[in-house]
Design a protein that fits this description.
The complex is a heterotetramer, with 2 copies of chain A (about 80 residues), 1 copy of chain B (about 230 residues) and 1 copy of chain C (about 725 residues).
Chain A: E1 2-11, H1 18-29, E2 35-49, H2 53-68, E3 74-82
Antiparallel strand pairs in A: 1-2, 1-3
Chain B: E1 3-7, H1 14-24, E2 29-33, E3 44-47, H2 67-77, E4 81-85, H3 87-94, E5 101-103, E6 111-119, E7 135-142, E8 146-148, H4 151-159, E9 163-168, E10 187-191, E11 197-200, H5 217-230
Parallel strand pairs in B: 1-2, 1-3, 3-4, 4-11
Antiparallel strand pairs in B: 5-8, 6-7, 6-9, 9-10, 10-11
Chain C: H1 2-9, H2 14-24, H3 30-39, H4 42-45, H5 50-53, E1 63-65, E2 72-77, E3 80-88, H6 90-95, H7 97-114, E4 118-128, H8 134-154, E5 158-165, E6 174-184, E7 199-204, H9 214-218, H10 224-229, H11 238-253, E8 259-262, H12 267-279, E9 282-286, H13 299-304, E10 310-315, H14 320-329, E11 334-341, E12 345-350, E13 353-359, H15 360-365, H16 378-384, H17 397-405, H18 414-417, E14 428-430, E15 437-440, E16 447-453, H19 456-461, H20 463-480, E17 484-493, H21 500-519, E18 524-530, E19 534-535, E20 538-539, E21 543-552, E22 569-573, H22 584-590, H23 602-617, E23 621-626, H24 631-643, E24 647-651, H25 658-663, E25 670-674, H26 679-689, E26 693-699, E27 703-708, E28 711-717, H27 718-726, H28 728-733
Parallel strand pairs in C: 4-5, 9-12, 17-18, 24-27
Antiparallel strand pairs in C: 1-2, 2-3, 3-6, 4-6, 7-10, 7-11, 8-10, 9-11, 12-13, 14-15, 15-16, 16-21, 17-21, 19-20, 22-25, 22-26, 23-25, 24-26, 27-28
Helix pairs in contact in C: 7-8, 7-11, 8-11, 11-14, 17-27, 20-21, 20-23, 23-26
The chains are: A alpha+beta (about 80), B alpha/beta (about 230), C alpha+beta (about 725).
Bound molecules: adenosine-5'-diphosphate and magnesium ion.
EC number (chain C): 6.3.5.3
GO molecular function, one term (chain C): magnesium ion binding
Protein name (chain C): Phosphoribosylformylglycinamidine synthase subunit PurL
Chain lengths: ~80, ~230, ~725, ~80
C-alpha cells in the first residue's frame, strides 16, 4: 500500500523561535495588528510504501525521533492516509 | 601524535583545519572520509566547519548518521579528544556528544567577522595553554550559531564548568553588544562533561597565521599539543 | 498565420527563421526550432555584440586562453594559471532575488570548473534603485542573501565586489557574479567533444522543467508581458554543486576526461552543440537516458531545461567505469547519454526515434551576426552643457563630507560582505573593505589581487571616457594593493541594442575600455554581455563592469588603504583639476547629473600606476588608497576610518574651486602614507616617472582636519566620520 | 474574535526542492525504503484578532501573498478556526 504522510515539526513551547519572531515583527511593521504568538516550523510531505497503517505509523514515528525532529527543541505530529 | 579531519559531503573547512595542523603546527594529519569505519591511531579528531549535507533540514542533522559518526561516538566515549568547529559543533550536539542546540542566528542573517572570546575555563585539554585573563580574537562565519539550552541544562553546564568560551568585547566584557547571534549566556563554546569533546562556533583554524589577521586560534591547538605530549 | 507565431513566440525573427530553413533545407520540427531559438538568442549567440567585441585586445604574453572558452586563463608562473570570468544574472534576480542571485553564483562557478580550475574566490557587482523603496529593499536583501547562501555553503570565499545605488536601476537591478579559479597548467580542460566514439556523460542534478527559455527571457526587455512569460524559476543547490566541483576536480586530476563543459543557459542544447562544434565533431544523445526529476518531460523540455548543477563530460570508453566510480563516491548521479560522432551533426533520440537532427555548428556558430545602427543619443548634448562657474560655492564642507559618507553608494558595505564568508579556505589576506581583495596562493609566495569596478554615472555622461575609467580604476585598485594587473573580464550591461542610441553607448564604451586595456596592458580574456536591461522602455545607465585580476609576486608586499602609523606623511600622487561632472558631490548635494566625466590621460595613469607599484614593492609605502567617488576628502576619511587614526591635511587652492579640490573626482590619483625616511625614495621615483607628488599632511590625532590654504574646511572626529559612514545601509535595511 | 491560523507553505510542483531531496536520500541510507517524493516546506501557526472568519481569511491571504510565501516558487494553503 502507498501512504501519504504529512509531518509537522514545530519549535517547542518556550523555545526561542527567531524565525517566528522575525515574521511577527515584519507583520507588525506591515500594519497587520492583533497578531499573537507566531511560530514557524517545518511541514514535510512524502509518500511511503508500507504493509498497513499501523506499521507505517511506527516507521514515521521512528523517522521523526531519529532524524526529522530534534526532540530537544521540537515537537512533531503527523497524519497518514492512503494515497 | 596524529590528527584526523573528518570529511562529510559538504564540509568546506576541512582543508583549513588540515593545513593548520600540517603547515603551521607541523604535525601528522589525515583526512577521514565519512564512510570510513575505523578510527585507529588518531589522537585528536577535528569535525570541521562547512555545510555537511547542505545543512538541509537542520545543521548537522544528516551528518550525524554518517557511518563514521558511530566511530566518533565510541572514540569520544573512550576519552579521545574531539574538536567540533562550527558545523562540527552542530553535528556534535545533534549526535548527543554535547548538550544544547544551535538555532538560527537571532536576526536570521549569516555573519562573517572577527569576535572576541572570554575563556571561562583554562583547565581543559583545549585551553590549558591560555592565560586566564587572555581574550581571544577569532572569526566566526555562520548562520546558525545561536546556542540554546534549557535552564536546568545551563545550570548544570555552569556548575561543571562546561562553558568554555563566551562572546565578549575586546576588553573582555560579556555583553549583548558583543553577542553576534543571540546565543544564550553569550555561549560560543562548550565542553563535554568528561572534558574531552569541545564544540565551538568560532573558527580557531582561521586564526593561525599573522597574515590572516590573528594567531589566537593557535592557543587552542597549542593546548591540545601540550595535553597530548603530557599523556 | 498560426505557424508564423511559433518562432516569433520563441523570439526568432522571420529572417532568422528563413536562415534556418535555408540551412537545414527543410522545416525544423518543434524541438529543433526550440533549440535554434535558444542558441540563436542574444544571450547565447552574441549576435548584436560580436562585431563590437572584436575591438578588445585579447592577447598577451601570459594569456593562455582568451575569450571563446568557458573562461579566460592567464599564466602566473610556478606551473599555475588563474582562470576567471564574470557573468550577469540580472533578469532572474529581478524576478526572484534570492534564487536568481544564487544560481548566478552557481553558474559562474561551473564556468571556472569547466576549465579544470579549482574555484577559489567570488566577487559580485550589484546595482539597485533607491533603498527608500520597499521593493528595492526586498530585491537587495534577497540578492545579498542568495549570493551568500550559495557561496557560503559551497565554501568559496566571496572576497569583494561593488555596490551602487541609482534610480536608473529601480526596476532592473544588476547582479554580476565573478569567479576566480586556480589550475595547474597541465590540468587545463576545454569544452571540446573530441575523439569519435568517446562517451558523453551527464553528471549532477536531474533534469526538471526549470528555466525553459531562460536565455530567451534574458534577451528581452522586462515588462508586464515578459513577466507572464517568465520561465519557471531555477532553484540552486549549492550542496550538489560542491560535490560536483570535488568530483570533477578528482576526475581531472586522474586524467579521466577528454572534455568538460558546464550546463548553463540553453542547457543540454548548448552544452552538446558547443562542445561538438568546437571540436568539429558531431554527437548522438539519447534522451531516455537523461535522469529526470519529473515524469513525462518532452524532448523539447529536456533539451531546453536550465536545471542547475549539471556538467557534461567527454570520456574515452575505457575510462567510463572509473568515471562512474568517482562520481558515485561523491554521491552523484552520472549517466552516459551519448557518444561523439564524426558527422558534425547533433542527433537527439527518444524512444529510439530521432527527435532532432541539426548540424552542431549551425546551432553554435551560425546565428546571424548583426551590425546594429549606432547614433549618438540626444541627451549627451543636453547634459554636457554645464557651466561650473554657475554652481554655488560650498558653504559647510563638514556637512557635505558627512552627507557623502552616509550616502549608500559611498557608505560602508559591511552590511553586505559581512553576510558572505570571505575567510573560508584561509587564504584571504586582504579582506573586503580595502581597494582590491588579495588572496594568497598556497605553496608559493604569490598572491592574487581581485576587484570589480564601473562608475556608470561616467559611462552615462560619456561612454568612451567612462569605459576607459572603468578599466583604469580597476587597475588602480589592483596596484594599490601591491599587485600588477594581469587581465580583465567584463560584463557589459546595457539596454536594448536594437535602439541606435543604446548601441552607440555600447560601441563607445568598448572603444574606451579597449584603449585603456591596451595602454595598461590588461587584455580582455573573457566576459559576458547583458542587453535588454530596460523596464517598459527606459534603459539603465550603460554599465560595463570590469573584473580585474592582478598578481603579487610576493604576498608579503601587499598594501591596504588603512593609515598605519602616527606621524606618517600623507602624500597625494597625481593632479587635481576643476572637475565635478559626474561626481557624487554633484549628484548628492546638487542633485545634478551633468557635465563631462573627469578627463583621463592613460599616459598619466600608467605613470601613476608604475610609480605606485615600484614604491610599494620597494617597501616605501605604508598605505595606498585610490581616489574615486567622493574625491580626496572621502578617500582621506576612509583611510582614517580603516586605520582608526586621524589626519591633518593642508591643501593649496591655486586655481581650483574648493568643492572640486575636496570632492572632485579627477582621475589618476592615489593617497599614500609613508614614513618620513621614505620621502626621498618616493620623490626620486616620481621624478623618474614624470608624476606629480605632493606631501599634504600627516597621520595622527583623533580627527580629520583639512585646511585649504589658511582656512579650515573640515574638522571632524574620526568617531563622527565613522558613525556617518558605518551604519547607513544597516539602518535603511532594518 | 480570536482565530487560530495554520499556514502551510510548500515549494511549488516542478520546482527543485534540494532540502526534500537531501532528506529523502538520508532516509534511504538510514534504511527506510520505499519513500517517495519528499517535499519540505514551512508550517506557520499564529493567533489573529479579527471581526469575522471572512475578514480574517482575506487578511491571511494577503499576508501570504505579501510576506509569508514567495509565490514565484511556493504555494500556500491555510486553515482558520476560532481559538
Ligand atoms: N557587492 C559586494 N560584495 C562584496 N564586497 C563588496 C561589495 N560591494 C563592495 N564591497 C567591498 O567593499 C569595499 C568598498 O567598496 P567600494 O566603496 O565600492 O570601493 P571602491 O570605492 O574602492 O571602489 C571593497 O573592498 C569592496 O570589495
Ligand atoms: Mg577603489
Amino acid at each position: 500500500m502507498l501512504y501519504k504522510v504529512k509531518i509537522v515539526v514545530m519549535p517547542r513551547k518556550g523555545i526561542l523561535d527567531p524565525q517566528g519572531q522575525a515574521v511577527a515583527k515584519a507583520l507588525d511593521t506591515m500594519d497587520y495588528k492583533g497578531i499573537n504568538s507566531v511560530r514557524i516550523g517545518k511541514h514535510l510531505e512524502m509518500e511511503l510504501e508500507g504493509e498497513n497503517q499501523q506499521i507505517v505509523e511506527e516507521t514515521v514515528k521512528e523517522m521523526c525521533e531519529k532524524l526529522l525532529a530534534n526532540t530537544v527543541i521540537e515537537d512533531y505530529r503527523f497524519t497518514i492516509e492512503e494515497a | 601524535m596524529k590528527f584526523g579531519v573528518i570529511v562529510f559531503p559538504g564540509s568546506n573547512c576541512d582543508l583549513d583545519a588540515y593545513h593548520l595542523v600540517k603547515d603551521v603546527l607541523r604535525k601528522p594529519v589525515e583526512y577521514i572520509w565519512h564512510q570510513q569505519n575505523s578510527l585507529k591511531g588518531y589522537d585528536c579528531l577535528i569535525l570541521p566547519g562547512g555545510f555537511s549535507y547542505g545543512d538541509y533540514l537542520r545543521c548537522g542533522a544528516i551528518a550525524r548518521f554518517s557511518p563514521i559518526m558511530q566511530e566518533v561516538v565510541e572514540f569520544a566515549n573512550r576519552g579521545g579528544l574531539v574538536l567540533g568547529i562550527c558545523n562540527g559543533f552542530q553535528i556534535l550536539t545533534e549526535a548527543g556528544l554535547l548538550p544544547g542546540v544551535l538555532l538560527r542566528n537571532q536576526d536570521l542573517k549569516f555573519y562573517c567577522q572577527f569576535v572576541h572570546l572570554k575563556v571561562e575555563n583554562v583547565n581543559t585539554p583545549f585551553t590549558n595553554f591560555i592565560e586566564p585573563q587572555k581574550i581571544l580574537k577569532i572569526p566566526i562565519a555562520h548562520g546558525d550559531g545561536n546556542y540554546y539550552i534549557d535552564e536546568k541544562g545551563l545550570n548544570s553546564l555552569l556548575e561543571k564548568k562546561q562553558v568554555i568560551f563566551r562572546y565578549a568585547t575586546a576588553e573582555g566584557v560579556v555583553s549583548d553588544e558583543a553577542n553576534p547571534n543571540g546565543a544564550l549566556f553569550n555561549i560560543a563554546g562548550v565542553i563535554s562533561e568528561k572534558g574531552n569533546v569541545l564544540g565551538m562556533m568560532p573558527h580557531p583554524e582561521r586564526a593561525g597565521e599573522t597574515l590572516l589577521g590573528s594567531t589566537d586560534g593557535l592557543f587552542i591547538f597549542q593546548s591540545l599539543l601540550n595535553y597530548l605530549e603530557k599523556l | 498565420m498560426k505557424e508564423t507565431k511559433i518562432w516569433q513566440e520563441m523570439g526568432l525573427t522571420d529572417t532568422e527563421y528563413q536562415l534556418i530553413l535555408d540551412g537545414l533545407g527543410r522545416e525544423p520540427n518543434y524541438v529543433e526550432l526550440g533549440m535554434f531559438s535558444v542558441m540563436w538568442s542574444e544571450h547565447c549567440s552574441y549576435k548584436h555584440s560580436r562585431k563590437a567585441l572584436k575591438m578588445f585586445p585579447t592577447t598577451g604574453e601570459r594569456v593562455l586562453q582568451g575569450p571563446g572558452e568557458n573562461a579566460g586563463v592567464v599564466d602566473i608562473g610556478d606551473e599555475l594559471a588563474v582562470c576567471f570570468k564574470i557573468e550577469s544574472h540580472n533578469h532572474p534576480s529581478a524576478i526572484e532575488p534570492y534564487q536568481g542571485a544564487a544560481t548566478g553564483v552557481g553558474g559562474i562557478i561551473r564556468d571556472i570548473l569547466a576549465m579544470g580550475a579549482r574555484p577559489v574566490a567570488l566577487l559580485n557587482s550589484l546595482r539597485f534603485g533607491s533603498l527608500d523603496n520597499p521593493r528595492v529593499r526586498h530585491l537587495f536583501s534577497g540578492v545579498v542573501a542568495g549570493i551568500g547562501g550559495y557561496g557560503n555553503c559551497i565554501g568559496i570565499p566571496t572576497v569583494g565586489g561593488e555596490l551602487y545605488f541609482n534610480s536608473c536601476y529601480e526596476d532592473n537591478p544588476l547582479v554580476n557574479a565573478m569567479c576566480v579559479g586556480l589550475v595547474n597548467k597541465n590540468n587545463l580542460m576545454k569544452g571540446w567533444a573530441t575523439g569519435v566514439g568517446n562517451l558523453v556523460i551527464l553528471v549532477g542534478a536531474s533534469t526538471g522543467r526549470d528555466g525553459i527559455h531562460g536565455v530567451t527571457f534574458a534577451s528581452e526587455e522586462l515588462s508586464e508581458a515578459s513577466e507572464k512569460k517568465r520561465p519557471s524559476v531555477q532553484v540552486g543547490d549549492p550542496f550538489m554543486e560542491k560535490l560536483l566541483v570535488e568530483a570533477c576536480l578528482e576526475l581531472i586530476e586522474n586524467n579521466y576526461l577528454v572534455g568538460l563543459q558546464d550546463l548553463g543557459g540553453a542547457g543540454l542544447t548548448c552544452a552538446t552543440s558547443e562542445t561538438a562544434s568546437r571540436a568539429g565533431t558531431g554527437m548522438e544523445i539519447d534522451l531516455d537516458r537523461v535522469p529526470l526529476r519529473e515524469k513525462n518531460l518532452t524532448p523539447y523540455e529536456i533539451m531546453l531545461s536550465e536545471s542547475q548543477e549539471r556538467m557534461l563530460l567527454i570520456v574515452e570508453p575505457s575510462k567510463e567505469s572509473k568515471v562512474m566510480e568517482v562520481c558515485h563516491r561523491w554521491g552523484l548521479k552520472a549517466t552516459t547519454i551519448g557518444r561523439v560522432t564524426d558527422d558534425q551533426i547533433l542527433k537527439v533520440y527518444q524512444d529510439r526515434k530521432i527527435v532532432a537532427e541539426v548540424p552542431a555548428r549551425m546551432l553554435a556558430e551560425e546565428a546571424p551576426i548583426y551590425s546594429p545602427l549606432a547614433l549618438e543619443p540626444a541627451y549627451i548634448k543636453e547634459i554636457s552643457d554645464f557651466n561650473l562657474d554657475k554652481l554655488p560655492e560650498i558653504v559647510d564642507a563638514n556637512r557635505v563630507l558627512l552627507a557623502l559618507l552616509s550616502s549608500p553608494t559611498i557608505a560602508s558595505k559591511e552590511w553586505v560582505y559581512g553576510q558572505y564568508d570571505y575567510m573560508v579556505r584561509t587564504s584571504t589576506v586582504i579582506h573586503p573593505g580595502s581597494d582590491a581583495a588579495v588572496i594568497r596562493i598556497r605553496d608559493t609566495h604569490k598572491g592574487l589581487a581581485l576587484t570589480t569596478d564601473c562608475n556608470s554615472l561616467y559611462t552615462y555622461l560619456d561612454p568612451y571616457v567612462g569605459g576607459m575609467i572603468a578599466v583604469a580604476e580597476a587597475a588602480r585598485n589592483i596596484v594599490c594593493s601591491g599587485a600588477r594587473p594581469l587581465a580583465v573580464t567584463d560584463c557589459l550591461n546595457f539596454g536594448n541594442p536594437e535602439k541606435p542610441e543604446i548601441f552607440w553607448q555600447f560601441q563607445k564604451a568598448i572603444e574606451g575600455m579597449s584603449e585603456a586595456c591596451r595602454v595598461l596592458q590588461a587584455p580582455v580574456v573573457g566576459g559576458n554581455v547583458s542587453f535588454y536591461n530596460e523596464r517598459n522602455g527606459s534603459p539603465i545607465y550603460p554599465t560595463p563592469t570590469v573584473g580585474m585580476v592582478g598578481l603579487l609576486e610576493n604576498v608579503d608586499k601587499r598594501c591596504t588603504q588603512a593609515f598605519k602609523k602616527q606621524g606618517d606623511i600623507i602624500v597625494l600622487l597625481g593632479n587635481s583639476y576643476n572637475e565635478l561632472g559626474g561626481s557624487q558631490y554633484l549628484l548628492q548635494v546638487h542633485h545634478l547629473v551633468k557635465g563631462k566625466p573627469p578627463a583621463l590621460s592613460l599616459e598619466q595613469e600608467k605613470a601613476l600606476q608604475e610609480n605606485l607599484y615600484q614604491a610599494i614593492s620597494q617597501g616605501v609605502i605604508n598605505s595606498a588608497h585610490d581616489l574615486s567617488e567622493g574625491g580626496l576628502a572621502v578617500a582621506l576619511a576612509e583611510c582614517c576610518i580603516s586605520g582608526g587614526l586621524g589626519a591633518k591635511v593642508v591643501l593649496k587652492k591655486e586655481d581650483l574651486r574648493v568643492d572640486a579640490l575636496l570632492f572632485g573626482e579627477s582621475q589618476s590619483r592615489v593617497i599614500v602614507s609613508i614614513k618620513s625616511a621614505g620621502i626621498p625614495a618616493l620623490w626620486q621615483l616620481a621624478q623618474k616617472n614624470g608624476l606629480e607628488v605632493n606631501a599634504i599632511g600627516y597621520v595622527g590625532g583623533e580627527s580629520l582636519t583639512i585646511k585649504v590654504d589658511d582656512r579650515e574646511w573640515i574638522n571632524l572626529t574620526i568617531k563622527e566620520i565613522e558613525q556617518s559612514w558605518k551604519n547607513t545601509i544597516a539602518k535603511l535595511m532594518s
